[in-house]
Amino acid sequence: MMKLFRYEQIKDKLSQKSFHGTTQSFKDVGHQFSDTSIETLRSIHAQIVQNKMKRTLASHQKPQAVKEFLRRYHSRIKGNERKPVLINIAEEADMSPALLARIVLENHLQERADGDEEPHKVLKSEVTRLMKEPHLIEDGALSIQVQLCNLKDPCYGPYVEAIKQSVGIEKEVFLINKLKEYRFDFMTEDDMRVKGYDKTPDVKLEVPFAWNGNVINWIESKASFGDEKSHNQYIKDQYFSYINRFGSGLVIYWFGFIDELAEACKQHGIHLSDRLPEEIEIVRFDPYPLKWDPEEEEPE
Question: What pTM was estimated for this model as a whole?
């Protein structure tokens, strides 16, 4: 958990141009905010970059901008095939190296396709495949440049996506294993899909439990930091649907969240945490309470 003013301080630090997203730069910021984990800093930084790219990517994809990127690339690449040419251009444009590499790669492939006997539109799936396997790019210099961009980019690209997916799966597996250890009956997201549910939290409890005076019917696992923008989007896209179908529930932001968000959404039945409650903190509901039997009533 993190107070809003603390989050703003960290956000300002991670937004500075002098911050490059390297392991050492995260460690340097971590020394200034010693109560915040490196994983949390990485998650906040990724959100900052992604929000910026959402605002600016359309302008980078305009024909005139793409033409300028290609001009710079072709004018600099000869004799510098193994140097970070595209990375430098991305830094000049204040954009993601992996996204720039994708723009250049897509245009390179389209130029080749236009020169074929039967010109055709390059499929996005083909661009994605080569971004994931840049060693298959026939142009040697561009192959190296795409690989360098994938390695350098801390927020975009196939390597980052693979890491995010693996961390997300790791947290979900941990959650499910702990609930089994607590001896709870529940359905996973996959179980619910098989049964035809249209909205599927990561866990739907068969019998709810109480925690901190709150009834928990479902649990959603988020391997990220809960900032206002992403949290509000999740409320709109997911959490309200869960509440309408299953009642109140628990969202776990494993890398923390802004404290003020918890109180604001509690009234809607959305309860936030940065961990799964310990078993000792949980109050279990008895699904089969004892019923009064009049025959067993003691005579007066």
Answer: 0.88
In angstroms, the CA 38 to CA 26 distance is: 7
Please check whether residue 209 is in contact with residue 184, taking contact to mean a CB–CB distance below 8 angstroms.
yes
What residue has token string 């896209």?
A: 237
Residues 6+ apart with CB under 8 A from 214: 248, 250, 266, 271
Q: What is the largest CA-CA distance in the chain?
A: 103
pLDDT tens-digit series, residues 270-292: 999 999 999 999 999 876 665 66
Residue owning tokens 């010693």:
34
Q: How would you label 94-117 residue by residue, b for 16+ Cβ within 10 Å and e otherwise?
A: ebbbbbbbbbbbbbbbeeeeeeee
For 23, counting Cβ atoms within 10 Å of its Cβ (0-12 exposed, 13-18 middle, 19+ buried), the class is exposed
Please give the helix or strand (H or E) that residue 265 lies within, else none.
Answer: helix 259-266
Distance CA 191, CA 52 (A): 37
Count the alpha carbons within 13 Å of 196 in the hemisphere toward its beta carbon: 0
Residue listed under structure tokens 């790019």: 137
Structure tokens at 267: 């009234």
